[in-house]
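Record pair follows.
FIRST:
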Amino acid sequence: MERLEDHDFVVNTRSHTVLGAVSRSYVFYSNHDFIRDIQDLLSGGQFAFFPKDSLGRFRYVNGFSVNTQLFLRFILRVESGRVTGPGGEGDDVTEIGIQFKNSLVGDAAVSIQYFINRLLCANGLIVPAGKTQSRIFHSGKRKNFMKRLERSFREVERKIGSTATAVKSLMAINFDPESLALTKMTPKVFDIIPGSRSKVMAEHRIPKRHKTRMTRAEQAEYEGSIIDRIPKTFAGKHAARVFNSPYRKNATMFDFINIFTEYAQTQPIHKRLEIEERAGVLADQIVKNKRKFGS
């Protein structure tokens, strides 16, 4: 009781259920208020219903409710690219927008992240937008909270062009499993889908080897051989078609990332969002280390 003296409860009054315990500095922010405020932010005060209308320059894509968390996704710009290879040329169109997330019990800050939707695969990718700009904590006065939300949103919106540049970078980097291993990204690769490393090794009968008995070059070759089997193990209908497209001379890192985002669509919504976000973290790391990969 002493520990709870400085806390308040967030309660569902219909079901008489305690949803969470929060400090007294917490600003209650219902999902209803969240939807209304995001609508005002994007539309400039012009009322619109998400499912059918655009909000200013933004177009609503979809939304998800997971327990007490709500996710809303909007598209702002479209990047049209061309891919070439032995089969000729083809279009590669990617939509880029923003994802907003709220937790009404305050167990996580309101967050703003970049959302990428590749039309060729029809799946999503969540890319970090920078921690300082993209997180708004449930604290302080309501008026100040709204000012912080708007300021963060404008900063993320202003830098959305960097995400378009990142997409182009991923499209320009060849899929190279050994390079992923050499840049020490193997853990991030296999963390995206829990248990994926074991599944790949078992399915392709890759024997376990001890790192201490291998040189750095041998480790990279060994880890690369496991990563190289990921497309054969997890690629879905669309990812496999893109990954092996006759329009490409080589598969790219964007094709590789799309394997995970398509797989995510086969999972329950909470797992899907986790996979999309972890895939986005890997994509972000690849772009930041692009000089270490061959062009």
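SECOND:
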Amino acid sequence: MNSYTTFSLRALAVALLFLASTAHAQLGRPEGLYYKSWGVVIGIDDYQVAPKLSGSLADAKAVADMLRQLGFDEVVEVYDKDAKSRSLKALLNTDLPRKLGRQDRVVVFFAGHAGTTRDMNGQELGYLVPWDAPISNISKAITMDDLKEFSRRVMAKHALFVLDVGVTGWDITPPQSPSFEGRLTPEEETDKRVVQVLTAAGKGEALIQKDGRGVFIHALLAGLKGAADRNKNGWVMASELGAYVTQQVEQATGGTQHPQFVRLDGDGDVVLIEGKKSAYRVEPEPKTATERLAAAKEEYEKAYSILQQQQSTQEALEHLDKALAYDPTYGDAYVLKSYLYLEFLPNLDAALAAGELAVKHAPQNPDSHYTLGLILQKKGRFAEAERALLQAVAVTPTYADVYLSLGDLYREDLKDQKKSVEAYRRYYEAGGTDNRARAYLDQTGPGQPNTKQ
């Protein structure tokens, strides 16, 4: 049997009155996690002096289309001769830093030639080759240091570089597994700055193609369509995309091509697909019965908190559905769900179905029976409503609100004056303070309890 926390339906109804009048402004898609999302897509096939390529341009355009499908507001496309060294450096050093805001995200994609040299300290330095540069000319190249400087200069909190090349040569923060502890909401992710990099291969590795397209791009596009959602919660994070692409490419190439995913700065995680906030969950999915019960209770408490704070009833319902997905026997979730369908998302059939399951799985919760009684009354099934309300006070004999509802049922629907008087009297004896039954009691003759305060 589930434990339960009794809540007062009438107290909750009062708390939700304001919500009921403003729900139209709260339902629907919530404000996004980012103020603005930027994509910078660079693809070069027709090099001026370096060897020409085939497929980079098509791959870049496919990524640009995907970013638009994901809802990116601005997608800047730079192809072939437009990707001159001077133009790319102006874009990264001047144009974008002026435009990107503090709450923005930016994804930079590059497909073309790349190379590696050594800096003055003998450390490897990777670079990208613009349209008008030879592969060996570092002076015109876009180095990894240039990309790091770009990520420092822009105000955007989240930056992801996706490089369809085999390149390395950067200083990174010490390798560590993503820590999801305490990160319970997507808003917490956007509060943490991060710069992440995903490359198609390790240094010097060939980029394998399949069906005329690189296996890296195949995996990248599939991941961005949702395949990278490792915990199936509707959200795709950059860390999930990196893990998915790496696994897919290594498998498809027999372990000859190894994508690299690193975090250059910060400890956040770029959100690539924004799902429902109620489904956001960064912890591993619960597996044992105990874990699933705990997850169900957590979702239920989120739903109740949302209602107390006069937020979206639809979002609260989503949390309740998630609770019941974790534990279909979690009775309290059925109680609250039945009440929402009764009062705020009117659907008597759905309310009745939830109410009957509430009574089945939480029979010791008086609100299971109370809510079911209210539903049956609205459906005109008055005798059944009476039995349900009587069962509620059998569970909790001092539940004043139930006596008030019983008095209303006897007075208005069953036309039983004697029982209505008795129910109203029991209401006041249990501490009820609602004045609407007093006039009726006064009209029934002497002997009514003193209800004046």
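COMMENT: The longest helix spans residues 289-308.
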